[in-house]
Amino acid sequence: MTSLKDLDRCTYLAGDCEAILAVGWLGEDDGFPRGDVSPVFFEKLKALCADPWAPFAAAGSHQCELCQYDGPWFSTNLFVPFNGRIYAAPVGIVHYIAAHRYLPPQVFIDAVLACPPMRSMPYHKALLANGGRSLVRGLRN
To answer: CA distances (Å), 113 to each of 5, 37, 64, in order?
Structure first.
């Protein structure tokens, strides 16, 4: 997996959407913020990652590079609309927080807490309202 700096434009994913910013694209050589997150945020993030909506399929999977042995594999991404942006994170972000104490940016935490349920009409409307028109055009999910 490509590692990306938090809140940089996410150019790694297919599709051309300037509103998408990267969060949680960690690699083994990256320094990243560590700390505690609230249980409320963590549970909401897990719920969103359980069956995330995605505008395109991932082209493979990635094993956690931060684990010493047998890191878990991830192959799906999460898209969280908020305040004119869409935050894209690998679903492995749940593991990075739980196992490696990764601390996502506060704006991402706020976005997750405000995010409507995945695949709901309010979620799709939030995608559209936050710059994701090119992501949802013509898609039925």
So the answer is: 22, 12, 25
